[in-house]
Amino acid sequence: DPADVTLVMHGTVDRLYRLIEIAEVWSGPISMAVYAPMQDASFFDDAIDGLRLCWATLRKSVSFHLVHHVNSPANVTQLGSFVYLSCKDIIRRLRLVRPNAGRSQYPHNLLRNVGRSGALTNFVLHIDADLAPSRSLRGKFKELLKLHNLESGIAARLPVFELRQFQNPVRTKQELAEAIKERNAIPFLQETCVPCHRPTDYDRWLQSLKSDSNDSEMSYKVDYVKEWTPFFITSKHSPLYDDRFVAFGHDVLANICELQANGYEFHVLTHEFLIHNGYRTKSRMTEFERTRRDDRATFYDKFLQELRKIDYKHSKQNT
Q: Any keyword Membrane (predicted)?
C-alpha cells in the first residue's frame, strides 16, 4: 500500500537480531541496509535464510540490502549453517557475532539511502537499529494520513526516550508514562547531548501523557534549530542523505539543513515515540561524542567548514 510508511534501518551484522523484536512491534514494511564487507557478507546471507525460516513476519515484510566498500568486496563463499539451527540457536548466534567491519569507515548516509531505495511506500521513517517504535506508531500515522492531507514538505518528528537496561519493554504511551514515573525512562541523550533533541520540546510532549488529546491535536509544529538531529517520518521523495558527510553528527546535520533549506516544516507527533534500550551515559561516550558535548562551537564550525569544502549548495542558507 503506497499510503503507508516503511521503517528504514541500517547496521552491521551484529544488529540483525534486533529485527526480530522490531518487526513484531512494527507489523509492516521494513527495509534494512547492512554493511557487510568480506566474510561478514557470508554471515549476512546465511543469517537471512535463518531469520526467514523462523519468523514469518521477517519473511513477509523485510527486504535486505547488502553494502560493502569497493576495497572490501563481499565474500559469500561460506554459506549454509543457519538453516540447520533451531530458532533459539539462531538468536544466540546473532547476538554473539562480532562484525569485521570497522566503525571508522561505516558509511551511515550511503546505508540510509540504500535502505530508502528498498521502500515501496510513500513515506519512510529512518531509525538506527538500536531504536524501537511504539506499537501503534504505524497505525496512527496511517490514520493521520487519512484525516489530514499531509504534504511532502512535512517532517513528522518522533520523541525518543532511553529506557533503563533490563526493564520490561515499553510499547505504549501508558507504559512509557509509568516508566517515566518510576524513573526508568528519560528523554534521549539527556546526559550526553541535550541540544541534539531539545527542539522537540519534551515538556510539552510529556504533558500529553496526562490527557487524552483528540485527533486534531496529533502533532505540534516546532522550529528548526541548527544543532537538532531528530528522527522523523517524511516523504520517500524528500532529499536523500549526502554520503559525502562521514564525520560523527555531521551526517545527519547535513540532511536536516537540506530539509530546512527546502522549506520543510517540522511537526512533533503527540502520541507516538521511539525507545532506545539502555541509558546513554557520560562514562560510555566516544571521543566524538565528548567533543560534540564539550566544544559545541568547534564541532559546528567544523561542520560548516565541511559544508564549504564540498561547496554544499545550501550552506549559505543554513549558517
A: yes
